[in-house]
Every structure is written in C-alpha cells, then in structure tokens.
Amino acid sequence: xxxxxxxxxxxxxxxxxxxxxxxxxxxxxxxxxxxxxxxxxxxxxxxxxxxxxxxxxxxxxxxxxxxxxxxxxxxxxxxxxxxxxx
Length: 86
Known about the structure:
Elements: E1 7-10, H1 11-16, H2 18-24, E2 30-34, E3 38-43, H3 46-72, H4 77-83
C-alpha cells in the first residue's frame, strides 16, 4: 500500500500531541515538518515499517537472482542461496 497523500504536522505540534499523532500513524504515515515545510521525519506504524523493509529485501533478492542468471547463463540453487546469504 502506497500513500500518495499523508497527514502532515509541525514539529512543535508533534511535541505537544505525541500520543495522538502516534495513534494517527497507526492508520497512515504522518509527516513531521519543521520551519513550515522542511521534512524532518515520517512516523509510521511498526507493521507498515516491517512491510516496507520486507518489500525492499524481496526486491534486492529478486534483483540479485536476475543478475546472477545473466552473469553465467545459469546458477545452481545452492550458489544462489549462498550469494543471497540464505
């Protein structure tokens, strides 16, 4: 799930209402801004973070497998697993 629009709040508002903003971040990412528009952080739920990290790892694994196939023409399952540290 990709969020093209997310809630934004200022750093001072975040400091004043941390609990509410952390609750909001369980439903959608919350962008923390300072000096009006400078993006300082994005707060997300642990589940969102875990899914994002897993997606990046999956993408890296897929890219590594494709690269290995193109290098030698063929790679054994054992070689691929070793290269991907699996």
